[in-house]
Design the sequence.
């Protein structure tokens, strides 16, 4: 009966807009949102660069990117930890166990995903479209912009997938954020902690929010693809 | 002076030579049609002219200046022309944005763009479609968007690749009308590829015949259709009667051609300067042959008694195969075919003028 008990207390926490729950959810959103935005700013131009240029090892590079889709979150966490620990090469930034470190970790985590899916989105735009743009007098960068616009729904889907992966991961956020209350505690790390402490209700409340966000993202994605 | 000049263009895809030593010059305001069967290299030649592809060998001159093989100048020159590809590729944007994009890319001011786009949409008859997504349009409408998108740029040169392929007759007529309107009103130089000979004949000042990557013949419509240079061109332009023979006499420009080459063969009269002894092809267009029930007295020098061997009805025209000692194909209207009661075995007279016979040198290899 612990489940029902937990669930009813979870709904209570949600309905009353419990400040702690809201703060944690807000931090999750802002960390994942920032990671996703920055990763997109890096990956969209990079994907265009890779797609529109022919070079040796292009296929190998794309395969590597696709392999990194499956990168374990704890591995990224470990990497960032080693890099930014006090004795690490970037230790002087002193950002370990801050949201900054979490954002960096998530950017590394979701970049392959956004990069890979943007490249395949751009490949979906036919060669004829590119030729037509060139014939109408588009310069190189104008053509790239047009092709991104042609593939906008698929590109947006790639970005949303990156966001979904960022907001739902635990490993990296735990390792480089440290799950510090009021500072780096996000929904997933909070659920892990509360569950291990035996406080099911808070974990469930956060879990419901997380699933609800996933639902909204899915609906948005579906809407876009139907257009 | 020529606006576009092509000198010695040769291009290959892998091992296959698609274009071989093409030389062509098109003057400002000219409408030039490139005709040839599918796979002859028409599209590749247009792509090279639009600087989309770099030819394996040869040079392109635009306004007398040689175009470099790389660099910013190519974009500048490309922006003075516009190329309408065979399959209209509209962008997944509104009709307005589709038409406006070329102007935006050239850095045109916003309010000027709006005026120009409205005007051109009205011209192609799509004024009510501004906000529609271009992907939702029919084939004919999409082709008009493609045309508007190019015309709004007021290019000096318009390149068209099979502008009416895959369109229904009504859409085709609309597009053809627009093309000839633009050619007249704006004095735009046009180079169009088509496999439709009558379209080339109707729209173009000059025609070039491209066969297997070789520009076999260029000239005005009459030259190409009446006096093809060789057997291949003759076949392609619908010269159905290509008869082997030898000139046996030439009397002040009127040659007697012995059909088949045997001494007692049938002789036909043709206008030609070739001397006796020359091996030739005599070419007669099916529509230049008149069929009648009796041997009429006329100025035509050739009249033969013949037997109908086959009749095929092709819409308003009938294709009649006859035997008058040699095989001929004539084309008559359906009504006269009925009047003459043309059917297999019927005895008739076939008549054609000496000027209706085009004599072509036969190369014995």
Sequence:
């Amino acid at each position: 009966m612990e489940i029902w008990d937990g669930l009813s207390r979870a709904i209570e926490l949600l309905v009353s807009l419990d400040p702690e729950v809201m703060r944690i959810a807000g931090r999750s959103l802002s960390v994942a949102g920032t990671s996703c935005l920055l990763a997109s700013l890096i990956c969209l131009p990079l994907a265009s660069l890779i797609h529109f240029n022919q070079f040796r090892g292009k296929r190998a590079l794309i395969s590597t990117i696709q392999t990194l889709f499956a990168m374990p979150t704890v591995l990224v966490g470990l990497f960032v930890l080693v890099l930014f620990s006090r004795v690490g090469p970037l230790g002087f930034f002193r950002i370990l166990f801050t949201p900054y470190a979490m954002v960096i970790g998530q950017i590394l985590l979701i970049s392959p995903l956004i990069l890979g899916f943007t490249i395949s989105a751009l490949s979906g735009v036919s060669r004829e479209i590119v030729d037509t743009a060139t014939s109408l007098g588009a310069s190189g960068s104008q053509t790239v912009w047009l092709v991104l616009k042609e593939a906008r729904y698929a590109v947006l889907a790639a970005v949303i997938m990156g966001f979904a992966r960022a907001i739902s991961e635990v490993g990296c956020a735990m390792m480089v954020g440290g799950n510090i209350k009021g500072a780096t505690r996000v929904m997933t790390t909070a659920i892990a902690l509360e569950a291990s402490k035996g406080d099911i209700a808070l974990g469930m409340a956060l879990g419901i929010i997380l699933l609800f966000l996933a639902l909204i993202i899915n609906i948005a994605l579906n809407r876009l693809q139907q257009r | 002076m020529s606006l576009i000049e092509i000198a010695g263009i040769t291009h290959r895809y892998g091992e296959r030579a698609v274009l071989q030593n093409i030389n062509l010059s098109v003057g400002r305001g000219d409408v030039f049609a490139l005709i040839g069967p599918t796979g002859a290299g028409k599209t590749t030649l247009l792509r090279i002219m639009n600087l989309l592809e770099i030819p394996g060998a040869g040079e392109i001159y635009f306004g007398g200046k040689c175009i470099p093989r790389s660099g910013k100048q190519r974009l500048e020159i490309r922006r003075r022309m516009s190329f309408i590809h065979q399959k209209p590729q509209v962008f997944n944007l509104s009709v307005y944005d589709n038409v406006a994009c070329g102007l935006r890319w050239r850095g045109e001011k916003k309010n000027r763009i709006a005026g120009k786009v409205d005007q051109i949409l009205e011209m192609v008859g799509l004024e009510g479609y501004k906000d529609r997504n271009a992907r939702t349009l029919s084939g004919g409408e999409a082709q008009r968007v493609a045309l508007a998108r190019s015309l709004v740029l007021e290019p000096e040169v318009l390149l068209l690749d099979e502008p009416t392929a895959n369109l229904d007759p009504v859409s085709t007529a609309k597009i053809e009308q627009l093309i000839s309107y633009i050619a007249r009103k704006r004095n735009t130089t046009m180079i169009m590829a088509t496999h439709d000979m009558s379209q080339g004949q109707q729209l173009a000042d000059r025609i070039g015949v491209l066969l297997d990557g070789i520009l076999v013949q260029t000239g005005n419509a009459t030259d190409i259709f009446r006096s093809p240079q060789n057997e291949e061109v003759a076949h392609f332009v619908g010269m159905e009667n290509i008869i082997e023979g030898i000139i046996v006499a030439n009397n002040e420009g009127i040659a007697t051609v012995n059909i088949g080459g045997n001494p007692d063969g049938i002789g036909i009269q043709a206008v030609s300067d070739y001397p006796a002894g020359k091996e030739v092809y005599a070419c007669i267009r099916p529509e230049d042959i008149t069929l009648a029930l009796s041997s009429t007295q006329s100025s035509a020098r050739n009249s033969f008694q013949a037997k109908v061997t086959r009749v095929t009805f092709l819409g308003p025209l009938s294709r009649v195969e006859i035997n008058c000692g040699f095989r001929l194909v004539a084309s008559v209207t359906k009504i006269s075919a009925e009047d003459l009661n043309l059917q297999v075995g019927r005895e008739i007279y076939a008549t054609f003028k000496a000027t209706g016979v085009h004599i072509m040198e036969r190369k014995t290899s």
